[in-house]
């Protein structure tokens, strides 16, 4: 691995506390800035980000805090609602959190009073909640997944509407805007299932071939691509071809923790390793390249999220947010030739 691929963060933003989770909004909020939320031990901060890659008048990154939501307990996961809009009056900020007390909290604010907001608590999970996601077209449902061997669906009034019983702890849940009647559910024992939300039955399953599977993601820009980390490896499926992985490569010396597809480029994805004694490793991969295209590290990093339109990802850390911009020659003839040999023609 060339030394010039080992990079410090492109940008950093200071925070008041340790950051447990950070999420860019995947939705257009009607503002030139991107919304970002991060959670600490007691609160969630919602802010707006702009980068010099978007506006040359900005030096590096510009982060403006919009509202601080007092949470009262450690924040473990955050999901954005597509109903969040900054270009309407009143403005709407809506997101959901999962916390260490095994409860979900749905937050809604119009940003008019920075100290007031509406909050609803959803109870039912009996163990750690690993991930949650809003239905991406209208935002009227929330799916959550837990170590309690369930994936549950909730309405915005806080009622549990559906529950899927799993065969091992649930680690990831994904909802795709192009297929809102299907839900991807990933289990620690290495199985990923797609559930039909009309019939409430599993219609497709994928097998990672190794355990533990810790994180999975459904490619936003290509619905037939699914990726995950299991053991030390990253794993990619083309769901039209086989239930077994199309590609599998070693990623982290210690167990891998997160897998996230870029929202801007379908062959770009990132993985993180488990926090070590000093730092957490971030790897950015391209399916047309045999090695990671970038390596980064952050002091005791947590969380992983991609910008909605830029090849830029963020992880949290001790009193900081760390941003990495991936600079790649995506037009390289060699790179694209490798893309076509690694993946089925149907992907393109």
Helix-strand pattern: EEEEEEEEEEEEEEEEEEEEEEEEEEEEH
Structural class: mainly beta
Biggest pleated sheet: 5 strands, mixed
Instruction: Report the uncertain regions.
Output: 329-348
What can you see in these coordinates?
- With 348 residues, the chain is an all-beta fold.
- It contains one helix and 28 strands.
- The radius of gyration is 19 Å and the shape is globular.
- 44% of the residues are buried.
Protein traits:
single chain; mainly beta; five-stranded mixed sheet; 28 strands
Layout of helices and strands:
Layout: E1 6-7, E2 11-18, E3 21-24, E4 34-39, E5 43-51, E6 61-70, E7 75-80, E8 93-99, E9 104-109, E10 118-122, E11 129-134, E12 141-146, E13 150-155, E14 160-165, E15 170-176, E16 179-187, E17 191-196, E18 201-207, E19 213-218, E20 225-230, E21 233-238, E22 247-250, E23 256-261, E24 268-273, E25 279-286, E26 294-299, E27 302-306, E28 312-325, H1 333-342
Parallel strand pairs: 1-26
Antiparallel strand pairs: 2-28, 3-4, 4-5, 5-6, 7-8, 8-9, 9-10, 11-12, 12-13, 13-14, 15-16, 16-17, 17-18, 19-20, 20-21, 21-22, 23-24, 24-25, 25-26, 27-28
